[in-house]
Amino acid sequence: MSKLNRDILFLIFEELQDDSKTLFSSLMVNRTWSETVIPILWKNPWCYNIDYSNKSNLFNIIASYVFDDIEEYLSGRGLLTISRKQPLYDYLSFCRSINVEVIQDISTIGSPIDYDQFYIQEIFYNLLMKKCTMLKFLDVRTIKHQIFYFPEADVHLKSICEIICDSSIDCSYFYGLAHKCQYIQKITFINKSTKVNRGIVRLIESQKDLRSFEWKDDFENDYFIGDPYKDILRALEMKADSLNHLKMYFLYIYRYEYTMLQEIFPKFRRLISLLIDDFCFFTKDQLKSLIYRDIEILNVDYVTLDTASSIVENSGGKLRKILLKYCDYYNYEDYFNQDSLIFIRKIRENCPRIEYLSLIFSPSEEHFTEFEKLLKTCRNLKSLLIVISNLDNEESFEDISNNGKRLLEILIRSAPTNFREIRFFDDFKFSLEVLGKFFKNWRGRPALSIITSDDVYEEEKYTNLINEHRNYGVIKEFICVSEKDIYF
To answer: Which residue, 303, 275, 477, is CA-closest to 383?
Structure first.
């Protein structure tokens, strides 16, 4: 293993780029491994799950590049003395990203004083603008330095492909970024304010190849000063021909904005993924205009079944993930039984590639039959979130248990060979006998993950059964989580 070709090693380590523990361990094997791993680790040295405020080594490596600028200042104030020792590699030449929050954390190693930290950060940003010649990613949340004015920023910021920012940044800062960065493909914006930020609108408008946009409201006050969504939506409308991925979580959409949403969303015809919190502002006639032929991922928090069916029907057969958070919405649907049956059929008819799916339906014979047909048709299905709800009658414990038994029998008969995860609430039960029989019949298939919100399966009699079949390789995990975590 230690004598593998350098190119092969690089491909292996690239697959492990999110596994910092393995990468750090690999540095110690030999010089070839070390030289291969270093560029991968330093491509984005800020992304690892470590406490950066305690990482003096990282601080010292960066500071070693600007020893003369920073050492005299720190030692003169009785602060940290850094080593003049040159690093073994030109680490920063591999760096493709800047993360403001991490740089702020490691600057506290140099000094506990805010003014000193600001000075250290300025030196670091100036250095990064010079050394990181192929910048691709910026996380500038909470930034206080106007990095686009540093020497060589004109050249190096042009290559930025992805940016994460928030509304704590003054709008004038976005104007500066918009002037330097015009080929951003992905923008993630965290909205922490009820005020309109014209700067983020300008940043969107200036992009020539925007493919992905995410907006997330993150505040508690529900009183807006102006309309924070109107200009954003208009700017995104201008990018409809290039936009492939759209993720929007608005806290407060008012009725007067529905008309704008109804007008703009049909224009996003090139979407590959759509994640949105609410899709109930369309009438049935308007839904016919939502034609997303390239869509692969549909993730909606609040949606009616007929809305979901319409989107699925108008898709181009490429859907791989349909993750719908039904919550209690189905309680208000007048034709729940009919709509849920239609939805299952639309999936079966239009989604041959589906891998991840959430379903809700009644425990009728017809629904179970359609569900089994879906399993036999959609052979790529890997994960299923399922809700079985009888709105017509209040079911006894025996009825609920029979529903669970029926579901497991169908999975044994018809589940695709790739199927490996099921999520469910407490809307149906598995008796100890039925669950044991299911586990025995599942032997020889991929290990199954079962995730539930029903804590009955944490009782000793169930845990003993689960652990027994985990030892046989039947169960990968069987865990009880909150209802919220069932969806995510």
So the answer is: 477
